[in-house]
Amino acid sequence: MNITVLDNKKVKYTFEVTPDEFAHGLEHAYDHAKKDVEVKGFRKGHVPFAIFEKKYGVETLYEDALNHVLSHKYQEVVADTTHEVVSDPEIDLDYKNVNRETPFEVSLLFDVKPEVTLGSYKGLEATYPKTIVKDSDVDLEIQNLLKKDGTLEPKDGELLVGDTAIFDFEGFLEGVPFDGGKAENYELEIGSNQFIPGFEEQMVGMKAGEEKDINVTFPENYQAENLKGKTVVFKIKLHEAKTKTLAELNDTWVETLNREEKTVDALKGALKKELTERKEKTAKQQFENDVITKVLDGVTVEIPESMIKKEAQGQIDQIKNQAKQYNIPYEQFLQFSGMTPEMFEAQAKEDAASRVKMNLVFEAVAKAESLEVSEEKVESEYQKLAETHKLELNYVKQVVTPDQLKKDLLPQLGYELVIESVVKK
């Protein structure tokens, strides 16, 4: 094996494939192919290699044979500790040289993990947001619960913000109806901002039976390409306006909520605690995001595109598997989040770039500080993996090596060190 560093991002491994190695690959390829081979005079799957070669040519097995040989060569690459490869291999091979009689060369090219030049990461200053929950915050939560339990009643007079409209609509672009722009007896709470900006505001003041043309402009980032930034007209007819009557705030109503609290005072106390925990979680996330930004801003690193693509594909595959579990087509599953496959995949790539950079940086921090993952932490992670995926612990340990876990956990150690060293303002 000959190793050539092409630049600071790629490395090339060149191997000689001997006739014996290629012969082994051909045997392996034929073992997989022969079950489907049919030749008159022989049972299917029992055709001798010599007969197959005479009828079909040994060259038909070359691709699978090479793949088998290269899988063994790849293990040699993995065992090389001088370079950490991070991409699938690019194969450099002159196929005219491939034969059974004489050795030939093949090269595998990989992206390598980039070097990270760290800036400041210890003793950074960051503001930790205050988490104060006021009585008015609790009252708002109470109002939302009351509203959720409220009843809609028909009303006379004008449609107001907070009312619910039952109406028909049809959208026109340059006088022509467009797909997805029509509905009948649609129910919409005015002020909920479910429709594009300007739509709901123009409905305020309408009365049952009234018809109106509403002029609006779709946002530039709207998912439908033909409507981005376009001004359209919606012709609407209001059938009915309804207003919500709130439930009465008392102990009897509290008991209907299926919560542990049975009185108004107990409910307010529980809501205050929940709001406090929620705000503290948000404040912690905001604080840590601020710290991460400060660390990443001082870093220099050139990330291979292959690392980002691989990370993004993992996220896409995860969503596809979730859709499959629910027996929902991938495209339809994404629609629940208001996204097209193109929008989601672009977002996945953006998220992946951020995650890859963070992992590289905090791994570099851990190495700079000579941090090591303890055996206790490894064991704890094995337990978590087994519980999360509902697998036997021993099976997880067979599939994932301790070295793999330590490698995955190392960035977390660097991250924890950085956060613990922050000077809070």
Low-confidence stretches: none
Question: At the first level of CATH, what is the class of the largest domain?
Answer: Mainly Alpha
Please indicate the count of domains.
3
- Approximate strand percentage: 15-25%
Question: If you compute it from the alpha carbons, what radius of gyration comes out, rounded to the nearest whole angstrom?
Answer: 32 Å
- Provide mean pLDDT, rounded: 93
**Major sheet: size, sense and barrel closure?**
5 strands, antiparallel
Summarize the structure.
The protein is an alpha+beta fold and 425 residues long. It folds into three domains: 2-111, Alpha-Beta Plaits (2-Layer Sandwich); 151-245, Chitinase A, domain 3, CATH 3.10.50.40; 273-424, Trigger factor, domain 2, CATH 1.10.3120.10. The protein has helices spanning 19-33, 49-56, 62-79, 135-148, 199-203, 251-255, 264-297, 305-325, 330-335, 341-368, 375-389, 393-399, 402-420; strands at residues 2-5, 10-17, 90-92, 104-111, 125-126, 151-154, 164-173, 176-189, 211-217, 231-245, 423-424.
